[in-house]
Amino acid sequence: MRDTSARMLALLSLLQSRPDWPGPELAERLGVSVRTIRHDVARLRELGYPVDAETGRAGRYRLGVGAALPPLLLDDDEAVAVALGLRAGSGPAGTREAGERALAKLDRVLPHRLRRTVAALTEATARGPENTGSDAPDPEVDPALLRTVAEAIRDSSSLRVAGDDGPSRLLEPYRLVSWERRWYVVVREPHPGRWTVLRADGLALRTPGGPRFTPVDPPEDLTDLVLREVAAAGWSVHARVVVAAPASEVLARINPAVGVVEPRDARSCVLVTGADSVATIAAYVGMLDLDFRVEGPPELVDQLRVTGERYLRAIS
């Protein structure tokens, strides 16, 4: 027989793996008596785990929903982060089934308030294409801010956002978009009805928030709006590159949302793109595998010279 602590952990794992267990089946799995199962369930309850039981000679058990997360597991932010990661993850084929099982276990024990928060974040969030990268550090975003924005989207509640150099503004939130390790919020300014994309890590929310609003239909897909806005103005560095290939060929090699391609003639075009550093742009344009010439910025020319010399040293 296992020691009591190990047995109780095994019992807890079984209770999390499916919704309902007969007492005799749990006893058989753990190699103990039905009476021992009853005692172990009582101990789990003392520790704060909400185990529900049906009365009877042998009894049936299930892990219920508590008013708070069981102790020594996860706090609110950790539970939300794990649930979102498991929902959004698309890991290797061998890990997907295990991830789904883990998510099912977590969903069964999440308190109702956190279930609603996870549901709000899931429904309010979209993801852009994972086709680019960055050598810049990831910005820090407070999980509490993401929860507040997602719940405002769910409830159609305005956000009161601090202005850069003036009074706060009332904005209507419509979508959270996660792209390239960054969070963006699509909002509508009720006056004059302009749609705007904001970086979540730059938001300063004021409390209390604003009044409820009646949602309106957006003018386009909001994820596409984010990608286009970021490509046009959202990067730290922007570049203009003449590519020795037709626009159609360049568009076939990039996601249209991460750069604007302007045709010049039948054999060349201009790519306007950006990133968080010139080193990242240098890598991007090199991956086109096409001849090109940089029109700007000068820092990109300097970076390409450094990168080119590095490549030459690698083969000398």
From TrEMBL:
Alphabetic keyword roster: Transcription, Transcription regulation
Chain intervals for the UniProt region annotation (Disordered): 121-141
Highest rank taxon of the organism: Bacteria
Domain HTH deoR-type intervals: 4-67
InterPro entries from the UniProt entry: ArsR-like_HTH, CBASS_pafABC_assoc_protein, DeoR_HTH, HTH_11, WCX_dom, WH-like_DNA-bd_sf, WH_DNA-bd_sf, WYL_dom
PROSITE patterns reported for this sequence: HTH_DEOR_2, WYL
Pfam family, any one: WYL
Protein name: WYL domain-containing protein
Source species of the chain: Actinomycetospora aeridis
